[in-house]
Amino acid sequence: MIEHEVLDAGLGDADDDDFDLSEIFDSQLPDNRYLDREVSWLAFNRRVLELAEDATLPLLERSNFLAIFASNLDEFFMVRVAGLKRRILTGLAVPTNVGRSPQEVLTDIADLAHSLQARHADVWTHEVKPALAEVGIEIVSWESLSHEERDRLYEYFQAHVFPVLMPLAVDPAHPFPYISGLSLNLAIRIRNAKTSRQEFARLKVPPMLPRFVRVSREGDAVRYLPLESLISNHLEDLFPGMEILDHHAFRLTRNEDVVVEEDETENLIQALEAELLRRRFGPPIRLEVTEDMDDLTLSLLIKELDITEQEVYRLPGLLDLRGLFDLSRIDRPELHYAPHVPTTALAFQPPEQNGRADIFAAIRKADVLVHHPYESFATSVQAFLEQAAKDPHVLAIKQTLYRTSGDSPIVQALIDAAEAGKQVLALVEVKARFDEAANIVWARKLEKAGVHVVYGLVGLKTHCKLALVIREEDGILRSYSHIGTGNYNPKTSRIYEDFGLFTVDEQVGRDLTRLFNELSGYAIEKKFKRLLVAPLHLRKGLLRLIDRERRNALAGRPARIRIKVNSMVDEQIIDALYRASQVGVPVEVWVRGICSLKPGVEGMSENITVRSILGRYLEHSRIFAFHNDGDPQVYIGSADMMHRNLDRRVEALVRVVAPAHLKELTDLFDLAMDDATSSWHLGPDGEWVRHSVGPEGTPLSDMQDRTMTNVQRRRRARAVR
């Protein structure tokens, strides 16, 4: 297992195991001190929906937020709701910190999900869709088309749609067909003209075809027909000689969580592939139907799918609004966010125009902190690995891969390095949820190229974002390290906000070497100096840093805690923050998604402030900053404050030490927590309230826009010098 004592990381020189956690937990806190994590997640997705409702945002971006909401909610059902149901049915204990039974939690989140889905459908039907029509982007009905348009679409149907359709009858000779998860389907009732017998058929809307079929285009004005509407108006071609009585769209969500007992299998890849196959046949957990579906058809679906009425969601208008992602490809710049081109980080800018930067020389001069997507991933992380692959002085590359993209230049750089004769180690996390199949493909491709591929430690996911390059310089081996908060994924780097630290610090290099040795072999390493590493000691290290601020406050010294994460759920961390607040420590938590912490409760958390910021970029970085009586202890890394991150994953935080980098992180936090910045504020009752307009009705500042401006300003200042 991964262990470490924290020496130079600012936690003192004593062995970390000497730190007694019981010293922190010496006061009573109320039982109802946590917010429900599932309800908090739904509150996060409601914030996404509020962006879709915001009439000040560009129209196609509002449409995109509707698609993001739909995609998020699908995953919530496939994983969180499915997990709750599986545990209830199998009698397993369900973690709950809010004093309610699992069934009560499931009922509450079902009610909330119903109301949110209805609101989501309403925003599309009555706000975004009409607004798009006003600017020339229409989603039309079959009834509104002219005869000429119908004829033209019929030709398209015959040529491109009809050949791939597969109608499946349900009768004594044809059992009810398997319905794949998240597929869009038509439930069709027909009458046999010869026997007058009513029959049922299911027709899957082909997912490989465009969801919206273009009807016409004149300049910027474009009209689309939903694919399911085109199909449903030509059912006679599929059922010749039959009378079409009725048809309705429906969509099923299945349990798609993957569970692999690693300690009971000899081959993780084979076990995972078998589990992925099982995922396709997971039990149904949600049935979405159009609100006009007749009772006879609905009763048949409920019976055949073995689903309860509580799990049925009647929705107006279109089902599966993930299809709105397609509208983001429409070339109407005025309906999108203004384009932003990432700049090259100052340290990595080439000395001459059109020249090529020496990444290694830049890192040797000083640590480099890069902020994506404001600063380019391609000219920093990608360039770092591509230069390492080509550099004859580079002897070895070691890297973790949690999620990457198709045709990834990161993977290609590792392949190029291996083929050039370098030692290359890739730790591919094949258990990364919903990327399992893709990561298996990458792992095998890397192995064929000669890369040493490992899959981490049994029972743990490797979630840390690490790259280590070993280069020979004047007969000495030098370590070039990168520790990031986000995945090595060129695609998501353009929309995910993340930090990455490049350094030649010898201690960081030794830390990463030891950590990679443990991940790939059997080494038991206990000494990490600039890293905090999960699963055994990251939580303890953070608790100790939090408690130091509490003790400083008790001693009358300045104290402050700032934490930026995607999720704040871990009870021990939350309790430590409560106790720091109780003695007057100002605590600022900047969280994107789930937050189980209750801020502003008198006597418990009145010194805690919680903010959330959502926008064009997904806030993804994790920052942990402690005042430490004027000697700041600031870390960045991959870990959220959740049980899975602290107990069941390999995570790594690195301490940031350069004064300029500390100022950059502090300035970012100042901007995020400023009352003049648009954000959501969490209240003690668990309600998130959006603050986007000032007292005089003027819009508050957009933090992400301001950050773009600040990065550009730094670059211009460098150019002037």
Automatic annotation (TrEMBL):
Its cofactor is Mg(2+). Residues 712-721 have a biased composition (Basic residues). InterPro entries: PLipase_D/transphosphatidylase, PP_kinase, PP_kinase_C_1, PP_kinase_middle, PP_kinase_middle_dom_sf, PPK_C_dom2, PPK_N_dom, PPK_N_dom_sf. Pfam families: PP_kinase (PF02503), PP_kinase_C (PF13090), PP_kinase_C_1 (PF17941), PP_kinase_N (PF13089). It comes from Microbacterium ulmi. Keywords: ATP-binding, Kinase, Magnesium, Metal-binding, Nucleotide-binding, Phosphoprotein, Transferase. This is Polyphosphate kinase. Residues 615-645 form the PLD phosphodiesterase domain. Belongs to the polyphosphate kinase 1 (PPK1) family. It comes from the Bacteria. Catalyzes the reversible transfer of the terminal phosphate of ATP to form a long-chain polyphosphate (polyP).
